[in-house]
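Aim 2, interim progress. The first record below pairs a target sequence with its C-alpha coordinates.
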Amino acid sequence: MSEDRLNRIETKLDKLTDIVASIARVEEKMVANNRRVENLEQRVDTTEQDIDDLSKDVRGNQGVAKLADKLFWIVVGGIVSVSVWVVRSGIQG
Protein backbone atom coordinates (compact mmCIF):
# COMPACT_ATOMS: atom_id res chain seq x y z
CA MET A 1 0.00 0.00 0.00
CA SER A 2 1.18 3.44 -0.75
CA GLU A 3 1.83 6.09 1.84
CA ASP A 4 -0.86 8.34 0.35
CA ARG A 5 -3.49 5.63 0.64
CA LEU A 6 -2.55 4.95 4.29
CA ASN A 7 -2.84 8.67 5.04
CA ARG A 8 -6.34 8.76 3.52
CA ILE A 9 -7.39 5.71 5.56
CA GLU A 10 -5.97 7.29 8.71
CA THR A 11 -7.82 10.54 7.98
CA LYS A 12 -11.07 8.66 7.48
CA LEU A 13 -10.51 6.73 10.72
CA ASP A 14 -9.90 10.01 12.55
CA LYS A 15 -13.15 11.41 11.17
CA LEU A 16 -15.01 8.26 12.18
CA THR A 17 -13.54 8.51 15.68
CA ASP A 18 -14.69 12.13 15.96
CA ILE A 19 -18.17 11.20 14.73
CA VAL A 20 -18.46 8.31 17.19
CA ALA A 21 -17.38 10.63 20.02
CA SER A 22 -19.99 13.18 18.94
CA ILE A 23 -22.67 10.50 18.88
CA ALA A 24 -21.66 9.42 22.39
CA ARG A 25 -21.95 13.02 23.64
CA VAL A 26 -25.38 13.38 22.05
CA GLU A 27 -26.53 10.13 23.66
CA GLU A 28 -25.29 11.33 27.07
CA LYS A 29 -27.24 14.56 26.61
CA MET A 30 -30.33 12.60 25.64
CA VAL A 31 -30.06 10.43 28.74
CA ALA A 32 -29.66 13.52 30.93
CA ASN A 33 -32.64 15.19 29.26
CA ASN A 34 -34.74 12.04 29.71
CA ARG A 35 -33.90 12.04 33.42
CA ARG A 36 -34.93 15.69 33.68
CA VAL A 37 -38.21 14.99 31.88
CA GLU A 38 -38.96 12.05 34.17
CA ASN A 39 -38.21 14.24 37.20
CA LEU A 40 -40.51 16.97 35.90
CA GLU A 41 -43.26 14.45 35.18
CA GLN A 42 -42.99 13.15 38.74
CA ARG A 43 -43.19 16.69 40.12
CA VAL A 44 -46.24 17.44 37.97
CA ASP A 45 -47.92 14.25 39.21
CA THR A 46 -47.21 15.25 42.81
CA THR A 47 -48.55 18.74 42.18
CA GLU A 48 -51.71 17.36 40.58
CA GLN A 49 -52.26 15.15 43.63
CA ASP A 50 -51.79 18.15 45.93
CA ILE A 51 -54.30 20.15 43.87
CA ASP A 52 -56.81 17.30 44.07
CA ASP A 53 -56.37 17.14 47.86
CA LEU A 54 -56.84 20.91 48.16
CA SER A 55 -59.93 20.73 45.99
CA LYS A 56 -61.45 18.18 48.36
CA ASP A 57 -60.63 20.41 51.35
CA VAL A 58 -62.18 23.44 49.66
CA ARG A 59 -65.36 21.53 48.87
CA GLY A 60 -65.54 20.46 52.51
CA ASN A 61 -65.00 24.01 53.78
CA GLN A 62 -67.61 25.60 51.52
CA GLY A 63 -70.45 24.37 53.73
CA VAL A 64 -68.77 25.74 56.85
CA ALA A 65 -68.16 29.10 55.17
CA LYS A 66 -71.79 29.36 54.03
CA LEU A 67 -73.03 28.53 57.53
CA ALA A 68 -70.72 31.11 59.10
CA ASP A 69 -71.88 33.74 56.61
CA LYS A 70 -75.55 33.04 57.35
CA LEU A 71 -74.93 33.08 61.12
CA PHE A 72 -73.10 36.40 60.84
CA TRP A 73 -75.98 38.06 59.01
CA ILE A 74 -78.55 36.56 61.41
CA VAL A 75 -76.63 38.01 64.37
CA VAL A 76 -76.26 41.41 62.63
CA GLY A 77 -79.96 41.40 61.78
CA GLY A 78 -80.83 40.52 65.37
CA ILE A 79 -78.69 43.33 66.76
CA VAL A 80 -80.24 45.84 64.35
CA SER A 81 -83.74 44.60 65.18
CA VAL A 82 -83.16 44.88 68.95
CA SER A 83 -81.62 48.34 68.48
CA VAL A 84 -84.64 49.57 66.49
CA TRP A 85 -87.03 48.04 69.04
CA VAL A 86 -85.18 49.77 71.88
CA VAL A 87 -85.28 53.13 70.11
CA ARG A 88 -89.00 52.84 69.19
CA SER A 89 -90.16 51.63 72.56
CA GLY A 90 -88.31 54.35 74.41
CA ILE A 91 -86.54 52.07 76.85
CA GLN A 92 -83.86 53.94 78.66
CA GLY A 93 -80.90 52.13 79.98
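The second target in this work package is listed in the same format:
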Amino acid sequence: MQHLIKAVTFETLSNTLCLGIAYSYFGHFGACLIFTGICFVLKLILYYYHEKVWEHYRPSKQDEPLNLEYWEI
Protein backbone atom coordinates (compact mmCIF):
# COMPACT_ATOMS: atom_id res chain seq x y z
CA MET A 1 0.00 0.00 0.00
CA GLN A 2 2.90 2.34 0.75
CA HIS A 3 4.15 2.06 -2.86
CA LEU A 4 0.74 3.09 -4.18
CA ILE A 5 0.58 6.10 -1.85
CA LYS A 6 4.11 7.13 -2.80
CA ALA A 7 3.31 6.80 -6.51
CA VAL A 8 0.15 8.87 -6.22
CA THR A 9 1.81 11.63 -4.19
CA PHE A 10 4.81 11.72 -6.54
CA GLU A 11 2.60 11.97 -9.63
CA THR A 12 0.55 14.70 -7.96
CA LEU A 13 3.68 16.70 -7.15
CA SER A 14 5.33 16.19 -10.53
CA ASN A 15 2.17 17.02 -12.48
CA THR A 16 1.63 20.14 -10.36
CA LEU A 17 5.19 21.17 -11.19
CA CYS A 18 4.57 20.54 -14.90
CA LEU A 19 1.37 22.59 -14.71
CA GLY A 20 3.24 25.47 -13.04
CA ILE A 21 6.02 25.40 -15.62
CA ALA A 22 3.51 25.28 -18.44
CA TYR A 23 1.50 28.18 -17.01
CA SER A 24 4.62 30.32 -16.58
CA TYR A 25 5.58 29.60 -20.19
CA PHE A 26 2.23 29.58 -22.00
CA GLY A 27 0.11 31.76 -19.71
CA HIS A 28 -3.01 29.94 -20.90
CA PHE A 29 -4.68 27.32 -18.70
CA GLY A 30 -5.97 25.19 -21.60
CA ALA A 31 -2.48 24.92 -23.08
CA CYS A 32 -1.19 24.06 -19.61
CA LEU A 33 -3.59 21.17 -19.29
CA ILE A 34 -2.54 19.83 -22.69
CA PHE A 35 1.14 20.15 -21.77
CA THR A 36 0.58 18.44 -18.41
CA GLY A 37 -1.36 15.63 -20.10
CA ILE A 38 1.46 15.07 -22.56
CA CYS A 39 3.97 15.04 -19.70
CA PHE A 40 1.83 12.50 -17.86
CA VAL A 41 1.77 10.14 -20.84
CA LEU A 42 5.50 10.54 -21.50
CA LYS A 43 6.31 9.84 -17.85
CA LEU A 44 4.22 6.67 -17.93
CA ILE A 45 6.09 5.46 -21.01
CA LEU A 46 9.43 6.37 -19.44
CA TYR A 47 8.51 4.55 -16.22
CA TYR A 48 7.52 1.43 -18.16
CA TYR A 49 10.84 1.23 -20.00
CA HIS A 50 12.77 2.12 -16.84
CA GLU A 51 11.22 -0.88 -15.14
CA LYS A 52 11.99 -3.09 -18.17
CA VAL A 53 15.67 -2.07 -18.02
CA TRP A 54 15.85 -2.82 -14.31
CA GLU A 55 14.14 -6.16 -14.88
CA HIS A 56 16.66 -7.06 -17.59
CA TYR A 57 19.81 -5.99 -15.70
CA ARG A 58 18.80 -7.15 -12.24
CA PRO A 59 20.92 -9.95 -10.70
CA SER A 60 19.37 -13.38 -10.76
CA LYS A 61 18.16 -15.21 -7.69
CA GLN A 62 21.63 -16.78 -7.45
CA ASP A 63 22.96 -13.38 -6.32
CA GLU A 64 25.23 -12.91 -9.31
CA PRO A 65 26.87 -9.48 -9.32
CA LEU A 66 25.22 -6.86 -11.48
CA ASN A 67 27.29 -6.28 -14.64
CA LEU A 68 27.60 -2.53 -15.08
CA GLU A 69 30.27 -2.58 -17.81
CA TYR A 70 27.59 -1.77 -20.36
CA TRP A 71 26.82 1.51 -18.59
CA GLU A 72 30.41 2.70 -18.09
CA ILE A 73 31.51 5.80 -19.96
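The chain has one domain: 2-60. This observation will shape the mutagenesis plan for the next reporting period.
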